[in-house]
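Handout, page 2. Input:
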Amino acid sequence: MNPSKYKRMATPDLPNRQWPNQHHTKAPIWVSVDLRDGNQALATPMSVDQKLALWQELIQIGFKTIEIGFPSASQLEFDFTRRLIEENLIPDDVTIQVLVQAREHLIERTYEALKGVKKAVVHVYNTTSKLQRDYVFEKSQDEIKAMAVQGAQWVKEYAVKASESNPESQWIFQYSPESFSQTETDYAVEVCQAVMDVWQPTADNKCILNLPSTVESTSPNRFADQVEYFITHLKNRESVLISIHTHNDRGCAVAAAELALLAGADRIEGTLLGNGERTGNMDIVTLAMNLFSEGIDPELDFSKPHQWISVVEEVTKIETHPRHPWVGEVVYTAYSGSHQDAIRKCLLKQQPNDYWNVAYLPIDPKDIGRDYEAIIRVNSQSGKAGSSFVLAQEYGLNLPKWIQLDFAPVAQKLAESHGGVLSHKALYNAFIKHYRCDQTEFSLNHYQLDKQGGEEILSLEINGETWQGKGNGTLSALCDAWQKRTGKSVDVIDYAEHAIHNEMVTVEGKNAQAMAYVYLQQDNKRSVGVALAKDSVSAMLLAVLNALH
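Output:
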């Protein structure tokens, strides 16, 4: 590797930059380019039917502007545009956008494809970077600017012709100085200003200037400088929407777009999950959810990712990485014991009307269609918190801390033997088996409690034998009965119980109603007992007997 063969991209000097002091306050105007930029990056481009399937998902998510293709580039793209228009598949509140080079016959063909459309953005472009001026086109700055001006004139002229036969059609003009990020920023302003002079936009009839990092070549902060410089040096700012189209060559497409919004941009173009040429386009899902995590309504609905991700994967043949920001399968999952413990404790304290404030979870997973059961998965790296969280969330077993500590080595050993993540069912079965909840040595045939002189009198039938004891409560009465039968004293260190409201938890084939946990000391030895039963007293008695056994 030889870094000396590369040099830093020149960006404008902006000592008084304002964007670092700005804050996001609202969602930008979103533009999906999945059907155009995303599609052209695929080894096998989408068919018309595949494009229609993705089109429907984009509508459901809430996009109001969708770049549907490059209709002058191929018959398939032309046919897809016609199908949307002729079959009336474009909702009244949705605007389609089409891309075209600044070449007359392509612009003419584009307007043919758009015949009868209610509203459309005609997006024309030509490259402006020094690299392509010098090496590809071998033209001067004036000649490249003339190409842009000529393209803008053709777009306007053919819009007038189209309106003569279809006066109901509304046209919005958009221009991109392709490779803006690699173009001298003052020259980009000059070219775009010349295009605006042709179109004559107003505050009530704005044009769109789209600033692409066609190849990401600067850090996000320097791209923000370019955008702020462009905006502050542009005349008639009130007559234009500033749009951003970033690529991910340096892995910073989302960051560059996010900072560009702080620099004054109004509009963001990108794709779902970042599909696009080379390393991809700006990932709209990531940026939208970034804003959502700051309390800003992104005005796009990503609450059901399992629905639209499957469509994206089907039409692109690209699988979603399990750790894709916000929507990957395991991005809310904790395996580490300390992380699991922190999450569990925070969730217990999180109140319904409070701001979300849970360790390791930047948003509530339920907002993105994820159940809490996927948050914590138990493997050999997990501690007591992981297994206790799963048992509580899935089966309603609220284990006291001393049971958590007692069961943690059991769960870890099981995970190690499995060599991976334990299923919730396997963990539950291991818990039931370890504490003999399904095969207790004691059969509680009958019990009766009476009060006498401030004490409780307990009479119970265990395995066909009658036991009796008394004490200041049920537990102490049972311990007394045990001492009378065995001559051994027993002390209750701690005890817990709760009701069961889960159909998966059964006892003797019927739904259990109560769970009890007991922590005992007998002859300087400590033990724990757990029991499921049809009522809380039976569960309490069986838990003590299990611990004594």
